[in-house]
User: Fold this.
Amino acid sequence: MKKQIVHLVTFCFFAGQPCIAQRKPFVFTPDQKWHYVSAGVGLPLPTFLGYEYRLNKWSYGGEIGIIHTGFLVGLRSSTNTNPKNLYIRENLQRGISYSADFKYHFSEKAHSFYVGSHLRMVRIGLHQDTPRAMIGIFAPDRLDEIENKLSNNRILNNLLGGKKFLDETAMQPNFVLMMVGVSLGKNIKLAKKLIFEPKLSFDFKINQSAKLDFDSDSPQIDRILSNQVSPYITRSIKNQNIMNFLPTLSLGFKYELKSR
Assistant:
């Protein structure tokens, strides 16, 4: 039995030599690394700046951009005549966007198609207005209740004369949207370190909140506003459904800082 095992091992050893001889020798391929800065324009994300780190077929990065709210889907073109929706559409200002993303490139070359995914935070502001004007739009049934609370507030009476506060201070509502998205793009090499990048992305809202910024120049007044006025307005603003879907076409340029 032992002799048969020895013969079998010997046979396998010699029989495997031609197969081993035909195999190509192992060649180590070093990682390909790139560092880029980018800038571009798009619709409705007209201007953005970004950074990208790429390792072989995977890349990771982030962008910051200015959003032109006039082009946002479902806002300017909405036919909803509800006073709250009309107020929001007429008072929209520019927004700002922050995003973090990763991409998979179909080739390890600098120029290639890719698909990606990202997480985006969008902050959209409205024009400043007085507390009374906003309460009249977003919480009109609570105006008397809020006035009584403020009239009985000794701090406000000393600083502003109670209800005068509603007409003599300013505040600005902001929408904060969290979105996830997918993208498809291509890197087109124009020069040794310059790449042109057209990209199409689709963002879907996963959460919406509202925040009020105050401009009273008094921390005491800001605290009172935050506790006694803000909840009524932010609750109503948060329930206004805006921008569930954001498609964006962008054209950008990337400059190679470093590669290996």
Remarks:
- Confidence is low (pLDDT under 50) at residues 2-11, 13-22.
- Residues 4-258 form a domain with the Porin fold (CATH 2.40.160.20).
- DSSP finds eight helices and nine strands in the chain.
- The longest helix spans residues 2-22.
